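Can't paste images in this forum, so I'm doing it all in text. The chain is below; anyone willing to post the predicted structure tokens underneath?
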Amino acid sequence: LGGPDPLDYVSMYRNLGNPSLNVPEHWHYVSFGLSDLYGDNRVHEFTGTDGPSGFGFELTFRLKRETGESAPPTWPAELMQGLARYVFQSENTFCSGDHVSWHSPLDNSESRIQHMLLTEDPQMQPVQTPFGVVTFLQIVGVCTEELHAAQQWNGQGILELLRTVPVAGGPWLITDMRRGETIFEIDPHLQQERVDKGIETDGSNLSGVSAKCAWDDLSRPPEDDEDSRSICIGSQPRRLSGKDTEQIRETLRRGLEINSKPVLPPINAQRQNGLNHDRAPSRKDSLESESSAAIIPHELIRTRQLESVHLKFNQESGALIPLCLRGRLLHGRHFTYKSITGDTAITFVSTGVEGAFATEEHPYAAHGPWLQILLTEEFVERMLEDLEDLNSPEEFKLPKEYSWPEKKLKVSILPDAVFDNPLH
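Text version of the structure:
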């Protein structure tokens, strides 16, 4: 319909809840526009009735109704527009169990509810429309401690805990912006008996994040312009082929299901539009332009073994490295950082992951701007000891550097400005 906002509209309903299930009265918000509303290619490419409609989902949100409130607050609509803008710009889709690091009270107040988890709406089942299938993903507001627990363990596990605590969401996961305590403060046993045990047993189901990151190939001199080093440092980031982009997207998705296998898709996987996988259909990625493969010279997309690498992360991304090592690699899995400022990706893999192009013989390998790093269990344990201070961000001073000379690996934690202004 034109205008600056990606969503056509957001419907707001007064939901009376369900007293017998201990579900309080609340406001129920539903977005319109992430799915295909028109079927005429105006906003979304029409792919048929059997596939996803548009991005394949709409967002919902349940906000506890305050006493005397006669009309729904409008800020959740702005929140939905912000999430939808991210989806339209990045063409990354959301799935149940995903989390969104927001770092600000959702309603711009002083609330502790500053992040989001996503889950299936308890009342709204997937619907078949003339333009494809639409599922409904509910936004659930959470505190920082709950977000961190979801990252360290898995989103579905934390959602289940929230359902058991009435003031923290209850069975329909209703967000109360006035909630002043985390579920772990309300019930201290939840952290030790459920989350810590879950992390130890299951590891983390977080298989990757969008992040501020970069990498350098230290085996080549900086003046070698033909090398794709420092991919996101520079005015013209090199582009990934559609095939590689899809594989990175799939890598990010893998591991989010409890029973998923630690397998990377093969490097020669055929590119498909509307890729089907074990979680949700994917739209054609924004990097997968029809000419994207053609603009990359062959020598830039061959797999290269590297002798020495330098990894760069901002503080938030760096804080997830222990999670990557302890929760993923020690459980035989992989973890991917996908740059939000360029076309770079960094995937850590353990020796048990199949389909990786990094091997024990050549632990550092790159395919264009996608770097894979294979770490043995012994080296992971050593890195966890050396990186222990990443768990104490309040004592952190940037920039911070870690180095393992005999492994020819260096990791730097840098200020955000380095990634926001890559030419500086």
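Confidence is low (pLDDT under 50) at residues 224-238, 255-261, 265-300. Residues 9-202 form one domain.
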